[in-house]
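Intended use. Records like the one below are meant for learning the mapping from a protein sequence to its folded structure. Do not use them to infer anything beyond what is encoded.
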Amino acid sequence: MRYTFEQMLDPEKHGLVMCPHCNGYGSSLKDPEGVNTCTECGGQGLMTKEQAEAYKQSHTTQEVK
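Structure written out for the chain above:
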């Protein structure tokens, strides 16, 4: 998904948050070697609040197991 300039300037106003996987950078050292864009947000650095919650829940569940 591509975001508009306005969405990038004020993501929370548009229901978006920084990607918790890459912290809004669009790439992450957590991803496998050779992967240049974040596997969670597709390199955009932003995602919807619902996507971020689902990401956090799935990673919290994995850590508990």
